[in-house]
Recover the amino acids of this structure.
């Protein structure tokens, strides 16, 4: 399929994710979990909260050709549907919503709220969802679609996929782009002109809140299930047999399954020492059309166009102690505010204080507060909030909130053909996909992600550096 790609455009921001600046700060949080009876809380070193579907991207499966009209001239690219394989079973079909950024084959993607992607700051995000709902593959009667559009000669699957992708790019990237095939171009024009704003679809599966805290002998929660599945299975903590922690409903009875709206609690034994636990819920369902999928390796952001019955999951954690600060921590990207939101709820009897990026944050006893950690676009972060009693919570990721086309004045680099790139493997393992990008981008982005500092809490920031023209 790569042979069909004649040229591609790379914006300056996407061309290089060089780890030119690594700031390792003394970010050990001054969180106080102290107290004579507090004991050492078990370490809770987990990645940023994820829920819903997790999938690995393959490549373009149904596509045609489009032309980007740029300051450097006309650049031809492939345009159409990608396919993803869901962990646990299932298949997803997606379109790209970041035209000039490369796609790394075999990259792992997570179902993500619009607020954590470029859609969160795109006033036309709802129009993109309308396009998805009213075109291929959601509308698979191509004869009827062609008649509605006014294409007398009919539409092939390739025409429909290319035309839909082109219409999406006009709203996702503000791109000046046309489909090469006249039928596909007519479909793109129809979809662009007809699109109306629709609301963001609900997640396939989430737990709210994803972290709770309390005291031994109490029911810690509630954690509420939100899902479009008929039911979910509930898996207890891995060490439940030894810790004695049970997962129960509000009536105190053990839970092995739940439904949308169900409330779940951690039942912690009264004699339990300070510690943590995690539960997992899982279901099989179709992921709603319009859900965003983002990769932590800065591979091209995708938006869902179709889903088979797929496995989805979510986790929630609990922290408990007798006295002192007892914090529950969770994180989410917020593109509107340009950073990562850390939500901390402290049910203890002492304040919880932590420091990040030179700023100290204090959560009073009985208080719940959200703190935004500002980051620059494309910065990779890896920070851990810790306390002297052994408590720790780790959050990692990359802030990816803008498409390449949203930045004015970026340099344009033209390559004769895509080149293989490597992220923690050989060139044969990871290749650029057909829609945009530079061979340098995935390699450098992957290098930035890999900068995990061992020991102590740390924050890794990826500096931005202009890419020289070839």
């Amino acid at each position: 399929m790569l042979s069909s790609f004649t040229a591609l455009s790379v914006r300056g921001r996407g061309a290089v994710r060089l780890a030119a600046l690594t700031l390792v700060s003394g970010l050990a949080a001054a969180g106080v979990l102290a107290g004579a009876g507090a004991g050492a809380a078990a370490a809770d070193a987990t990645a940023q909260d994820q829920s819903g579907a997790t999938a690995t991207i393959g490549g373009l499966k149904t596509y045609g050709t489009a032309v980007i009209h740029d300051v450097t001239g006309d650049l031809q690219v492939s345009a159409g549907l990608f396919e993803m394989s869901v962990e646990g079973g299932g298949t997803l079909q997606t379109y790209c919503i970041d035209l000039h950024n490369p796609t790394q084959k075999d990259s792992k993607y997570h179902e993500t709220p619009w607020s954590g992607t470029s859609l969160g700051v795109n006033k036309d995000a709802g129009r993109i969802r309308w396009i998805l709902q009213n075109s291929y593959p959601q509308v698979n009667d191509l004869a009827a679609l062609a008649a509605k559009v006014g294409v007398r000669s009919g539409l092939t699957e390739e025409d429909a996929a290319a035309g839909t992708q082109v219409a999406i790019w006009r709203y996702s990237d503000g791109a000046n782009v046309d489909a090469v095939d006249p039928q596909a171009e007519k479909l793109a024009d129809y979809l662009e002109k007809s699109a109306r704003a629709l609301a963001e679809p609900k997640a396939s599966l989430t737990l709210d809140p994803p972290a709770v805290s309390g005291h031994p002998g109490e029911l810690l929660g509630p954690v509420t299930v939100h899902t479009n599945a008929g039911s979910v299975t509930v898996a207890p903590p891995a060490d439940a047999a030894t810790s004695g922690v049970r997962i129960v409903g509000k009536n105190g009875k053990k839970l092995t399954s739940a439904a949308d709206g169900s409330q779940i609690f951690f039942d912690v034994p009264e004699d339990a020492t300070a510690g943590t636990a995690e539960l997992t819920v899982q279901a099989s369902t179709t992921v709603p059309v319009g859900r965003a999928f983002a990769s932590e390796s800065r591979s091209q952001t995708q938006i869902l166009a179709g889903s088979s019955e797929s496995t989805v999951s979510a986790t929630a954690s609990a922290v408990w102690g007798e006295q002192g600060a007892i914090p529950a921590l969770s994180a989410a990207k917020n593109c509107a505010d340009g950073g990562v939101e850390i939500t901390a709820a402290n049910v203890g009897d002492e304040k919880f204080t932590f420091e990040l990026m030179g700023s100290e944050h204090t959560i009073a006893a009985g208080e719940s507060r959200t703190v935004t950690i500002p980051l620059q676009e494309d910065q990779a972060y890896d920070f851990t909030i810790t306390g002297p009693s052994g408590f720790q919570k780790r959050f990692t990721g990359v802030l990816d909130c803008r498409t390449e086309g949203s930045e004015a004045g970026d340099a344009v680099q033209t390559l004769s053909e895509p080149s293989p790139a490597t992220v923690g493997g050989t060139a044969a393992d990871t290749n650029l996909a057909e829609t945009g990008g530079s061979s340098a981008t995935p390699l450098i982005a992957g290098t930035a992600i890999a900068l995990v500092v061992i020991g102590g809490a740390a924050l890794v920031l990826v500096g931005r550096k202009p890419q020289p023209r070839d």
